[in-house]
Write a structure and sequence with these properties.
Strand content: 15-25%
Number of domains: 2
Order of helices and strands: EEEHHHEHEHEHEEEHEHEEHHHEEHEEEH
Strand order of the largest sheet: 4-12-11-10-7-5-6
CATH architecture of the largest domain: 3-Layer(aba) Sandwich
Number of strands: 17
Largest sheet: 7 strands, mixed
Number of helices: 13
Length: 417
């Protein structure tokens, strides 16, 4: 019998993200070990969503703590604004560039995926100006896209509810139907000669786990090439091994002009995001030696954060976690296929180690999530689906438990429908 969760008796001082400000019911997570978590009441869980799509190496890794502590005791932080740098920032940029599919890449560092998206949007428009095309300032994104919650990303995302109540958003940012190359072609034609960039997630995660096709992404590449626009892949979720390759661009065989990243680069042990830029971007930014890039963040290139990234990547390489991601995906695909064949779910979709099970219309996804939590499994509810994106160190036994708990919960709701 699982113990009752302790909840806050009234709204606390902490104003939670993506939650009702009036809510009193929060589970206090206090400890983690690989794919397992414990709350303040001692209840144990399998983390089937990797916290928020990011815990690639799992929780509680002592060598991560040691690497972070060692850097804090040497140099905890210092600005990388002109004229300063530090060895960790240089090393992590070199490492990330070497892993990326982009030749002659450079790497801009920031603190989150939201900052990375806003930076990529700025770089796209600035690079167009610096290359003599100030008229190219329209940015096209896709419905269902989630690109963070800063003003740029809020303007860019294709989830309408997330845009309500924040006033006037950025001009020159538009959405088209996802995975519809004809709709994208029409948008280019309607904005002929004015498109600065297209932003696309190789797999739309928060929008419900919608993998793109290689043909669609290749079509975006051709449209951008034909119209002098930059192609930006938002790889905040798909980057750093989630699809069995270092970046989703490599899985699909399509190389963009910029890649935004965050989440899995440190597995959440420290907050890091960034933008990988290609030769055309870099050439535009350096064509005028007097040009000064007036954007950045206090913690860009933060040495302790960079130390965490380097250790995280080392662990992923040493433990062959990219190959493990492929295996995890196969297990979930097999499990969801069996549940679909049995009529428990109406379908499923995913790629690599990101999957979603599609629920019958009569079943509420949030209710399923909550019931799974009570049985010791944490997944993510998105309208009509339950999503999984577990640590890449999850065991096969734990995957089986996740699938069994999910099936049990959905069957119980179906029986009572």
């Amino acid at each position: 019998m699982r113990r009752r969760h302790t909840v806050v008796a009234m709204p606390g001082r902490f104003l939670h993200s993506f939650a009702k400000p009036s809510s009193e019911a929060f589970i206090s997570i206090v400890r983690g070990n690989l794919a397992r978590l414990w709350d303040s009441d001692g209840n144990e869980y399998i983390d089937a969503i990797g916290s928020l799509w990011y815990s690639n190496i799992g929780h509680g890794r002592k060598e991560m703590a040691d690497a972070i502590a060692a850097q804090v005791s040497t140099l905890e932080a210092y600005s990388t604004f002109d004229p300063f740098t530090n060895p960790l920032a240089e090393a992590v940029a070199e490492k990330i560039a070497s892993l990326s599919p982009i030749a002659d890449a450079r790497v801009f560092l920031c603190g989150s995926g939201s900052e990375a998206i806003d930076t990529a949007m700025k770089l796209a428009r600035t690079a167009q100006i610096q290359s003599g095309h100030a008229e190219r300032n329209v940015i096209i994104t896709r419905n269902r896209g989630y690109h963070g919650t800063n003003y740029g990303g809020t303007s860019a995302q294709g989830l309408p509810l997330n845009k309500v109540g924040y006033g006037t958003l950025l001009e020159g940012v538009m959405q088209v139907d996802a995975d519809d190359i004809e709709a994208m072609s029409i948008a280019f034609a309607q904005n002929k000669g004015k498109v600065a960039a297209v932003i696309a997630e190789p797999v739309q995660g928060a929008g419900g786990v919608w993998p793109s096709s290689a043909e669609y992404l290749a079509g975006l590449r051709r449209l951008c090439d034909d119209n002098g626009a930059y192609l930006i892949f938002d790889e905040v979720i798909t980057g750093f091994g989630r699809l069995g390759t270092w970046f989703g661009a490599m899985h699909y065989g399509v190389t963009p002009d910029m890649i935004t990243f965050a989440k899995g680069v440190t597995s959440g042990y420290q907050p890091l995001g960034g933008v990988i830029t290609s030769a055309p971007i870099n050439k535009a930014l350096t064509a005028d030696p007097s040009f000064f890039l007036r954007t950045g963040y206090t913690y860009s290139g933060h040495p302790t954060v960079c130390a965490a990234a380097l250790k995280n990547i080392e662990i992923m390489e040493r433990e062959n976690l990219l190959q493990r991601a492929t295996h995890i995906g196969e297990k979930f695909e097999q499990g969801f296929a069996a549940l679909a064949a049995d009529g428990v779910i109406t379908g499923y979709r995913g790629v690599g180690a990101i999957w979603a099970a599609i629920l019958p219309d009569t079943i509420d996804a949030t209710a399923v999530r909550d019931a799974m939590i009570k049985k010791g499994v944490i997944a993510r509810s998105i309208p009509n689906v339950i999503a999984v994106c577990p640590p890449l160190v999850i065991s096969d036994e734990e995957i089986s438990t996740v699938l069994d708990v999910f099936a049990e919960v959905v069957n119980s709701f179906s029986a009572n429908a």
